[in-house]
Amino acid sequence: MREIVAASTAPGGHWVGDGFPVRSLFSHMNGNNESTPFLLLDYAGPAEFAPTGQPRGVGVHPHKGFETVTIVYQGEVEHGDSTGRGGVIREGDVQWMTAANGILHKEFHSQDFTRKGGTLEMVQLWVNLPAADKSAEPGYQGIEDAQIPAVDLPDGAGRLRVIAGSYAGVAGPARTFTPIEVWDVRLGAGKTVTFDPEDGHTVIVVLLDGTVTLNGERALTGAAQARLSREGGSFTVAAGTDAKLLILAGAPIDEPVAAYGPFVMNTEGEIRQAINDFNAGRFGRL
Fold first, then answer.
1. Tens digits of per-residue pLDDT, 140-178?
2. Rounded Cα–Cα distance for residues 140 and 116 (Å)
3. 224: which of 124, 210, 266, 279 lies 20 to 30 Å off by Cα?
4. Is the pTM of this model over 0.85?
């Protein structure tokens, strides 16, 4: 059975723009690469927004060297980027944006959500790219809820949506550069499920809501996260209450990480070049 290497509850929150009150459950900005290939996970909300006439969010900004994965649980987010792609990400939808060689984008509450107001709840995950793929062309995958297969867990424990990778022979729709599993899980109170990711892969259990116990030994109350050992096979999650989780697993990218704000490269020299490229307008226009 996999060991629990580290666990923590969500720290205090901060705002991203004026539309996203987030808590960072883990981040590469702490100076290590222990969560590779995952870099950062921000949990936004749940937060109530009153109706207004001006969309809240984040204006045009750059990214380079990695991918962002946005999962919307409640509310609506509207995206646009310098590839010309974009649209509204609704409840259950996923946006998988590949910054790679450099992209500009903006994220705001949708016009409809802005007008009506309501609850916003979403996650944004940053996924690293290997050095060989950091110069790839930027891309965008808009994945609707109806495109994401859901699997009933054994013994009526709950359901699992396969966003990326596969579970029980069911493949998710997201295209990835390296082997990655992203599973959106709901567990019923009093239920236990066993997961068996590939040995050698990083595994992170992200609890967004509820109370669970991992391997019968470590209790978590959301929002919280636990990183498991790369070896050891399976692990168990027992739900003390109805619980909402993300299970992340992926092949480590064991390369140096140099990060500066929205840029994630391998060396400080590459960071300087990324800043120069952005200032020179080489990330396109939006």
1. 999 999 999 999 999 999 999 999 999 999 999 999 999
2. 28
3. 266
4. yes
